[in-house]
Design a protein that fits this description.
By secondary structure, this protein is of the alpha/beta class. The protein has six helices and four strands; from the N terminus they run αβαβαβαβαα. α2 packs across α6.
């Protein structure tokens, strides 16, 4: 490498290209926060507390009472160990809400991907106050999970929007089977949501007549 010279003919000082490592005192190192362990507790899935409705406004609200309602339950057969239990909990909740067996229609389909098509077909018959969709999609090693879960969610919403029949989302989308087992009672939530929306729609239709 050739030397550089300043105006007086003397070699110019070369820049120090190597940056020395920064010394970290033991006291500073001890003040650093500890790394979070891999098994750290996961954040809650929803905020605690109840919804509060302000007073003095006209409201349209529904209840989860099932008397006089006809309900269709469309359920995926894939991951049957989980979906069978989802169906069982849903039927228990429908019975507790006052929906008789002869007012319930159960439609099994191959998988979660087929749920929207069945829900759409059932809604178009106009025979049902609401539809409860049940399924379970567990993440694997391929992107298949994302496609199926996304299409199931958007398709079920589309079925409700196009037909005006409430369709509740009771599809579990989890990382593991254990997570799905811990969320079996989401089927009860789906039933209550469907019945409540059916009551809201009934009030809106009555008010518009």
């Amino acid at each position: 490498m050739s030397e550089r010279f300043d105006g007086g003919g003397f070699p110019a000082p070369q820049p120090d290209l190597e940056r020395p490592e920064r010394f970290v005192p033991d006291e500073e190192a001890e003040e650093r926060p500890p790394l979070k362990p891999a098994e750290a507790e996961q954040p809650p899935e929803h905020a605690a507390g109840e919804f509060e409705l302000p007073e003095g406004y006209r409201t349209v609200t529904g209840s989860s009472e099932g008397e006089g309602r006809t309900v269709a339950v469309v359920v995926s057969k894939f991951n049957g160990e989980i979906t069978s239990r989802l169906l069982e909990r849903a039927l228990e909740e429908l019975a507790a809400a006052g929906v008789p067996k002869d007012a319930i229609t159960i439609t099994p389909v191959p998988g979660a991907f087929e749920l929207p098509l069945a829900a759409m077909a059932l809604a178009k018959t106009r025979r049902y106050s609401c539809i409860v969709a049940l399924g379970c999609v567990i993440r694997g090693e391929t992107p298949h999970f994302d496609y199926v879960a996304g299409e199931a969610a958007s398709g079920l919403q589309l079925a409700a929007i196009e037909t005006g029949v409430p369709v509740s989302f009771g599809v579990l989308t989890t990382e593991t089977t254990e997570q799905a087992e811990a969320r079996i009672d989401r089927a009860r939530d789906a039933v209550r949501s469907a019945l409540e929306m059916a009551a809201v729609f009934t009030q809106l239709r009555t008010a518009s007549q």
